[in-house]
Each structure stands twice: as C-alpha cells, then as structure tokens.
Amino acid sequence: MSVVKSSLSVGQEKKLLSLFGHVRLHLLYKASVHGYMNIAFHSRCDGQGPTVLVAYNKAGFVFGGYISKDYAQTGQVINDDKAFLYSITDQREKPLRVSSTDGQYGFTDGVYGLNVGVMWFLNNSTATVQIVAGNSYTFEAEEMHGNDLQLTECEVYRVEECVGLLETPWRKIDLEGYGTKERLMDYIKNYKPEVKSVVQVRVLLVGPVGAGKSSFFNSINSVFKGHVTGQANTGSAGTSLTTQFRTYSIKAEQGGKALPLVLCDTMGLEEGPGAGLDIDDINSILKGHVQDRYQFNPSMSVQTDGVGFRKSPSLKDTIHCVVYVLDACKVSLLSAKMVDKLAAIRKGINKLGVAQLVLLTKVDEACPLVRKDLTNIYLSHYIERMTREVSVCLGVSQSCVLPVKNYSREFELDVHTDILLLTAVVQMLRYSNNYFDDIYQDGEQSE
Ligand SMILES: Nc1nc2c(ncn2[C@@H]2O[C@H](COP(=O)(O)OP(=O)(O)O)[C@@H](O)[C@H]2O)c(=O)[nH]1
Ligand SMILES: [Mg+2]
C-alpha cells in the first residue's frame, strides 16, 4: 500500500485542531494520491459526517472549510450552523475563522468538491479554486488565501469527536494482572496441533509495508524472552524492508524448547502489479513451497526451479493460518486496489480452508485514550469502529479482528501489552485447530 500521509506540518495541525474541541483528524482523501477528481473525492468523503477540507497553495496558506453535515451530492443548499471557513499561515499566530454571514448557510451539496458559495474547491475536477460572487461567507481574499487560488495539495479529514469511553467493553477479555499473562503463556507453550504430523503451527503474516508484521514477531519473541528484543528488521521505509521469506521460531525461554508456533514474515503487499508480494507468491507460500530465507524478487513471482523452492511439501510445511496485518490508523485509507488485492488473496485462501484472522496494529497511535492507557482498548469507540470497518472491508467476522499494540519504542515489557499480544497468538492457535479439525474430518490425516 502506498502510505497516504497528511501534508500538515506539526504546527499547522496544531493550529487546525485549535479550531475544534477534543477531536482527532482522520485523513480520507488526498488529491495528490487520489486525484483532483470529483468521483475520487465523493467516493471517499460522502457520508462521513463532519469533515474539514484542507487546501494548500504556494503562497503558504492552508485554508478550507469545516462542515458538520455529510457530503451526499443532493444538489441542495445545506444549512449548517457549525460550518466555518478558516485560514492558517506561518505569519498568523491564530487561525482565521469565518462563520457564514447569516449563521445558517453551510454549503451547497453538489457533485464537485466543497462549494461554500464564495469558494468552490475541486470545481470541474481541477486544482484551481473557483471564486464565485456572493456573500455566503465574507472575508478578505488576501487574508484567506493570499490571492493564490492554485492548489498544490488538497485533503479532506473526517473530524472525530473524542467522546469518552464506552460504558461496557465491546469485547470481554481479562486484562488484569500477571495471572492472565501466565495462563496465556502456558496455553501457548502446551498447545499441540490436532494433527500428529504437525509439531508447529505455521502462521503467515501478510499486509501492507509498515503495517507491523516484523514488529509483531519481535513483540511475541520479546514476551517470551522477558525483555524487548528486535530480531526481525523493522522500520518505516516506504517499500518493503523484508524482501526475504523468513520463518521465525520462538523459544519458550532462554535455551528452552521452541514454541509450537512459527511466524512467517514476508515482503509487504503493495498496490501495483509487479510490486511487493503477489498472489502467486502467496499461493506458493501457502502450499509450503517457499523455504526460510527465500529471496523474493519484487518484480517476479516465485520460480519453481529457484533456490529455496521446496518441490514436494507436506502438511507440516504448509501455512495453517493466515493473519492479515493492518495498521489501525490507515484502515479508512486502504486503497480500492489494496482492498481488491486482499479480496483476491482471501478468495484463494478460502478455497484451501486455511484459517484467517486480522491483526489490527498500532492501536496506541490510532486512539489517544488507548495511548494513555492500553486497558481502554475494549472501551474505545474508535477501536471498536475500526475493528468493524476492517471486518466489513475484508469480509471476515468482527471476532476475527485482533487489536494489538506491538513493542516499538519501549525497553521494558508491559503486562497489558503482553496480554493483548498473547491473546492474539492464542486465537491463531485456536483457529489453526479448526483447520486441522477440517483436515481430519476430510480423512487427509496420514498418521
Ligand atoms: N506505535 C506503534 N508503532 C508500531 C506498532 N507496530 C509497528 N510499529 C512501528 O511501525 C513501523 C513499521 O513496522 P514493521 O514491523 O517494520 O512493519 P512491516 O513492514 O509490516 O514489517 C516501525 O517503525 C514500528 O516500530 C504498534 O503497534 N504501535
Ligand atoms: Mg517487515
């Protein structure tokens, strides 16, 4: 997935946020990525509730409008007493904020961009802001945009109220104390696959670059090591840091027995054809053809005569559970191409009957209440909504979505982080058992 990032500087974001109460901004649309096209704009922004449009020009102005009502392409004038226009520049300490002249008018809900009467963004799918005579909002052009109507970028963010926490948790799990952590660790250590020929469950982690696949392995390894370690390379480069297929065993304790679990880390999924992991690569991995340290070639599928290709894999070499790894902050930004790619992968996996789960990472970055206290995770409206969005987007049930926080900058373990990570592993083992049950029932078990 190309990572869609906000163009707001820290200072600009701070000024923009100062126009609202306690909110967070969620990037929905970015012209340089999705195009200055009305279709792209509306497919991402319609029906999203309160949004703010953020336009940038060469003169250094960041300006646009907030509306509290949906874009819906009704062609109607929408009354919105909360709507306002704003402008931010380095020269001004405080943003300029302009409410509509009559205190009622919000915008005209047409097919092109944001139309606030006097200014029309994305009119005719262009980067030029159209100025229309009128007095729906009154301001000095020089103050609003420095008379520069040619946009260098245009973004729309959903404005989300950070309302408190849910009264009852959306999922019940015991996050309290070391007893829970010990119990989960014991379950994992003592787990035995239902099929005798398999000693270790092989879990494949797939997802966009930067979603936290390598970090998840490092985090699980850390929990069992007793301190934070970083065996697999992690980072924030735009393209895959991991170009090898790696299979990681984890020791239950220093020098001890390996856990009944192998985490398989791959190159990231990327949008375009011929980039990142493709569907044929995944099929080869699923069927057990790809060995540890196989070197992927991002522009070529797995070669059947290549080094590291296993010609006749058995059940123990195949993948028993596929885990889609997605960044909770980017769920709404998954491109249509990425969603299609995931759907195609899922279709192939459905045929094989392999267990499928979703790991939702970076919950700490996605919700400030969770960042403050990880035990808020099952009380967070936002995380609950993200798990729902992911389940709809991938076509899996919500119970298959496992929110976690990986270790990324800490030195020391934290018991709540551990419990979430271990809970995810336990689910992977349980789902793998379902898969083995199916195989067993199909009479394919040889021993
Ligand atoms: N805050 C936070 N950062 C994370 C989390 N998981 C991963 N990261 C960071 O995200 C970046 C990409 O992670 P990485 O594991 O390399 O992604 P991969 O490409 O899927 O293997 C790294 O800088 C990690 O430290 C998480 O749960 N919380
Ligand atoms: Mg990686």
TrEMBL record:
Family the UniProt entry places it in: Belongs to the IFI44 family.
Superkingdom, natural source: Eukaryota
A Pfam family per the record: TLD
Protein name per UniProt: TLDc domain-containing protein
Chain's gene name: LOC110528881
Lineage: Eukaryota, Metazoa, Chordata, Craniata, Vertebrata
Biological process, per Gene Ontology: immune response
Domain TLDc: 2-160
